[in-house]
Design brief:
The protein is of the alpha+beta class. The protein is 41% helix and 27% strand. The chain contains five helices and eight strands, in the order ααββββββαββαα.
């Protein structure tokens, strides 16, 4: 399935991370994103391996597994791999397609260039990451 430029921009608009982005930024993100398809049970990201980008789920569903235990399920409009975009360190979890899944992949080096040009995007990503960390921390305390 090949997504047209406008359809790709529409998908980017629907991602909460880009909710406050202007059309120029939406176009930039859509322009650097690469469409990738994964069959069911394909490992998309493997815990401990170097990360080189993030993914936005277009269609399908994935499970996030840390140390062999499922920790989350993600679907269309959600994203994963954002830590790799920030520090290019090893993946903290594995992500496996539960069903045939289509993602938009954003390479870390492309995202870094966007952050330099659009600091608001970097702030949005940091806020989203803080929110995820907060929810994990609160879940573990209660």
């Amino acid at each position: 399935m090949l997504i047209s430029g406008e359809a790709r921009a529409q998908l980017v608009r629907g991602v909460p991370l880009f909710a406050n982005a202007d059309e120029a930024l939406i176009g930039s993100v859509a322009g650097i994103a690469t469409e990738v398809e994964f069959p069911a049970e394909r490992t998309i990201a493997r815990q401990g391996e170097p990360g080189n980008g993030m993914f936005v789920i277009v269609r399908g569903r994935v499970r996030v597994v840390r140390d062999g235990r499922p920790v989350a399920t993600l679907g269309p409009g959600e994203w994963f791999g954002e830590l790799a975009v920030l520090d290019r360190g090893p993946r903290v979890a594995s992500v496996i397609a539960d069903e045939p899944t289509v993602c938009l992949a954003i390479a870390a080096w492309d995202a870094e260039q966007l952050f330099l040009e659009q600091p608001g995007l970097a702030i949005a990503l940091l806020r989203a990451l803080a929110s995820r960390m907060r929810s994990v921390t609160e879940d573990h305390r209660h």
